[in-house]
Specification:
By secondary structure, the chain is an alpha+beta fold. It contains 6 helices and 3 strands. It has a 3-stranded antiparallel sheet with strand order 1-2-3. The protein starts with a helix and ends in a 6-residue tail after the last helix.
Length: 185
């Protein structure tokens, strides 16, 4: 209720003065993870684990959780394995992956009343060594390409910017693979 009242006031302010509205990103949203609050957009990616390519991506506002676009990103995936963390664990995801003939070595998740066994912890640790390759991509996008901040306004422009960043990452990765004589991909 309170959010809609605030939005009405802002909407009226944008109508009264169009210059104010041009400088505000009305497509971006707030998201809270742990104790940190973020405003903006998410870059959801599907990665080829063998060569660290960005195969597919989806850009959404920050409030959309990764698990909500999980199946859409994997629709054109040719890999048989999907390496994901415990946020993607669930019966609906397992059924969808089985229908796409994919295997799901997703992390197992414990809860307050049933903590993880030692076997599950070791299994998650083995899976994490494979999943860590994906994090290198986000590190490169953030530290080498300035991907943490976007100076564009609107979802469409952000989708173009993030898409270009993903493509530039793939080009840089191709140069690295060619330098290592691994270009026969």
């Amino acid at each position: 209720m309170r959010v809609t009242a605030i939005w009405r006031v802002l909407h009226q302010r944008f109508k009264d003065n169009p210059n104010v509205g041009r400088q505000k990103d009305t497509d971006a949203r707030w998201a809270k993870k742990d104790e940190e609050t973020h405003f903006g957009y998410n870059n959801h990616v599907a990665v080829d684990n063998a060569h660290k390519w960005v195969r597919d991506y989806e850009v959404t506002c920050a409030e959309v959780h990764d698990s909500q676009v999980f199946i859409e990103i994997l629709a054109d995936n040719t890999s048989a394995d999907v390496w994901a963390d415990s946020a993607y664990q669930g019966e609906n995801h397992e059924i969808s992956l089985a229908a796409m003939q994919m295997r799901s070595p997703v992390h197992t998740k414990g809860n307050r009343h049933k903590p993880l066994s030692q076997r599950s912890k070791k299994s998650n640790a083995r899976r994490s060594t494979i999943r860590a390759r994906v994090e290198h991509i986000f590190g490169s996008l953030t530290h080498e390409q300035g991907g943490l901040y976007s100076r564009v306004i609107g979802l469409v422009r952000t989708q173009v910017k993030v898409g270009m960043m993903n493509r530039v990452y793939n080009m840089r990765r191709l140069v690295t693979l060619c330098r290592r004589d691994m270009c026969a991909i």
